[in-house]
Write a structure and sequence with these properties.
Largest sheet: 5 strands, antiparallel
Oligomer: single chain
Structural class: alpha+beta
Number of strands: 10
CATH superfamily of the largest domain: Aminoglycoside phosphotransferase (APH), C-terminal lobe
Distance between the termini: 55 Å
Number of domains: 2
Number of helices: 9
Strand content: 5-15%
Shape: globular
Helix content: 40-55%
Order of helices and strands: HEEEHEEEHHHEEEEHHHH
Radius of gyration: 20 Å
């Protein structure tokens, strides 16, 4: 029995414990089936098989932290992961995701407010470091492997931009400053309404949750804005809501860029690295958004202090 089939059986049994695993009419839906995550929904229960190299002890600490802030993070259904096919498995209530077909309804204010609450949460102990820099380093490592076999014209600029970052942003040194509780991989796909379909927004995905630099959680929308991929009004809505909610990652007013600069550069490199790696695997050119990210990486090293047109040098 492969992982997807086994996980489907597991989530069905979890959703209907009284049925003893007997068939039901609810139906199951595969929400993701990737090497790093397989996710299946059955009725109002979701099961996630985490990446094979996931540390189960650290994942348990992250589940405990999520359960402690249910007004911010979707709370897990169990405090410890199960095991299936040598993968840790967690169980969650189903939440309705952001509608990708309705960008005007993107919940930027909700995302920012939740982040501000998360960053102000008293630090749980113990908790591992936030995994954002580690994930960025992994994306760059995969790019290096890909271009060693098939060179890509955009890759050298991306790699130069990476080496120009400080060691902490490359996961080669401890993160600086006073740590905060961070999500580690914030994007709109990490929000759901619970209870579905119109309950309050909650953050999901604890794989990268941990202690670190809170500006990292603002860096992806900041980078998208700077690269011209996020409209200025949406960036303003996000930043204003974060500040209004007392978020500590940036000053309460004035220029946010000194706090956001390094994380935004790191997220730009990470996203560009992933884009080039995927394009090489599919034997296709970069699309317009991907090229914008690669161009931003080139500007980082060719024009000192300049990420893109979106922020002052």
């Amino acid at each position: 029995m492969n992982l997807l089939t086994a996980l489907t059986a597991k989530v069905r049994a979890t959703a209907h414990p009284e049925a003893g695993g007997a068939p039901c009419a609810c139906g199951s839906t595969s929400l993701a089936d990737r090497p790093d995550a397989t996710v299946v929904r059955h009725a109002d229960t979701v099961a996630k098989a985490h990446a094979p190299d996931t540390d189960s002890a650290e994942l348990t600490l992250r589940l405990t932290a999520a359960a402690a802030v249910p007004d911010v993070l979707l709370a897990p259904l169990a405090a410890t992961p199960a095991a299936l096919h040598d993968r840790p498995v967690t169980f969650w209530p189903y939440g309705a995701p952001v509608d990708p077909e309705d960008p005007d309804a993107a919940p930027w204010e909700a995302a920012a407010t939740l982040l501000a609450r998360l960053h102000r949460t008293p630090l749980p102990a113990p908790l591992p470091p936030m995994r954002g820099p580690e994930k960025a380093a992994g994306a760059v490592s995969r790019l290096r492997t890909a271009v060693s076999a098939t060179p890509h014209p955009a890759a050298p600029a991306v790699l130069r931009a990476w080496t120009a970052l400080p060691a902490w942003a490359r996961a080669e040194a401890p993160m600086p400053g006073t740590p905060a509780l961070c999500h580690g991989d914030l994007h709109l796909g990490q929000l759901v309404r619970h209870p579905a379909p119109d309950g309050p927004w909650r953050l999901i995905d604890v794989d990268d949750l941990g202690l670190g630099v809170p500006a990292w959680d603002l860096a992806r929308p900041a980078a998208w804005y700077a690269c011209g991929l996020l409209p200025p009004d949406e960036w303003t809505r996000f930043l204003t809501a974060y500040r209004d909610a007392g978020g500590p990652a940036v000053p309460a007013d004035g220029d946010p860029w000194p706090a956001l600069d390094v994380p935004a550069r790191a997220l730009t490199v990470q996203t560009a690295a992933r884009a080039i790696t995927k394009a090489l695997a599919a034997d296709r050119p970069l699309d317009e958004a991907e090229q914008a990210l690669a161009d931003a990486c080139a500007r980082m090293t060719s024009v000192p202090g300049q990420l893109t047109h979106g922020f002052p040098a």
